[in-house]
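Q: Hi! First time doing this. I have a protein sequence and I read that you can turn it into a structure. Is that right? Here it is:
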Amino acid sequence: MPERSRLVALFAVVLIAAGAWRIFAIIGATPMLGYANQFDMLRTSACVGLWPDRAPPTQLDAHPQAPFARYVRSERRPDDCYLSTELLFVAPVAAMVRPGATIDLRWVGAVKGVALVALALSIAALLRREPAWAILHGALFAIVVCDPMNLLWLNTLYTEFSALFFLYATIALSMVIAGRETSLPPSKGILLGFGLVLCGLGLSRQQHLLLPAVLALPVVISLWRPSLRAALALLGMVIVIAVGQLSLIARQPVIAAANNADVVLGAILPASLDPELTAKRLGLSAGCLQSAGATWYVTMGESLENVCPEALSVSRTRQALLLLSEPSTLARAMLRGLPQFQDWRLGYMGAVEGRTYGDAEMVHEIAGAAAFSVAPAVTRVDVAVFVLALSVSLVLLGLSSTIVLVGAAIGRRTTLALLLYTLTASAWYAYATAIAGDGYVEAARHAQLAASCLFALSLALLLSLLAPLLLPFGANLRTAVMAPLAAVLFIVSASAIAAMLQPGLRSAIAKTPMAIGVVDIPRQNKVSGGPMEIAGWALDPLGVTGVAVVTDAGDVFEAVRNRPYVGAREEPLALYYPGYPQVERAGFSVQLPARAFDRGSIEMRTIVFNAAGGRTEIDRRRLVVAPR
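A: Yes, that's right. Below is the predicted 3D structure, encoded as structure tokens:
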């Protein structure tokens, strides 16, 4: 290897070392740093028998305020186990702990950290003959992969780490395979590795069952002529992954019912222009319209099993066919979710042991300079700016996918376009499946891969502009010239197209019911009569200008707004929806007079008005006066 190329390889390793420093600064910090368990970690605990070192009745409780470092080896619960490739990192640690003994969760984090660094070094070795891409990879690893918004998954049992790990490996190997300069097929070892990481990604979470197919598509096309057997093998593999996730790894009945309620009632029906027709297509009774906007957790004062049991069992196939037949419903459902995806910091899960809802700033205070993160900055930007950035990324997806697929078909190398495609396709896949998988419940967490991909996208375009600086160090002349030129063309064209689309997008947002909110008083719909307080919270990305309760008798009661609101654990609403305006004082209340209950019952709807004149119904229920 020429001396200058050695310098580039050394610099790439230095960047990886910087990432390793960040990894182990987070993993080894005291107090422990890692996302707290909002419940889902228990599904991995059930597989390996590692439980929080607490009294048995409380081991199964969620503790989102702060993580626990000490875990105890106890019985497994196979019926509650969620099979995932996360177990590849957790099971070996659990196997070394004897029953009844405790272990620090940092050991799980250490295994993941070592695996992450080993993967980065392996990719660097594959890119050693490509100086520009080796440096870009090292920078993306150190800055994006090792951002605390990703590293805080290491000291946990969440499946998000395995999804991130295998997505990183899949994107890197797809670049190596589809971005190769020679017409010869890649080595069997690389193809085997690519197949394995595709399996790891597809089996990380049921949400990602189709993501391997999305990412493998350009690779399959590029291999079609030089190695038809390899192309068919990869094609067969992604099909097997999807079928395996759907048929072999079943969701628990309760979780399936919760997901269905969140999607059908919480996302699809509120986004429909014709809810009655949509309900009919989904096989729902007319009574289910009463629960439009409800979720498994916010039931509008009624049991969903009694009001709309069929919504809990609508098949995923039927939901998908409905969205394909009603593209406007899909578009409006996506629009309603965009502001929630801005929460890159996931503040509703505390990240510091022993601190209540320890946030990114506290993580930085404990771990030092290694814990700098882009997440708080993104979360603070104006919603309109964030939506514009998402528009640019969507345009980039369209441009890059066209270039990549055409290039793969004619055997032409389109490396930067391929990178942009894998990042934008992964991001928008995460957004779409977050809503299709669990509605707006924890949408930001379920779409967390998108945050990393969009961050990497921005950095990759920026660093591509600097490619000519690597010419003295052995960079390919074509890469040094074409990379910045292509980056400029992508940035300018995508930004121009996105800017032209903004008036239409703003108009669509203004016409879409964008508000979110909850009426949590009264908790039940059987009441003692009036006068009665109706209270809750409401947010709208365009700003809330009014909240009113409308009854079936034609009465309209204006709510008192701008009240402080805290959750069930006394947590501020801003932890969940930091990007929304007025989040610090989102509470409202209205007093229903006794006369409203003269007929013994009333149907009431809670309507939120925004600054664009739009209105959103956030709650609908029938209050019935219970006999005394």
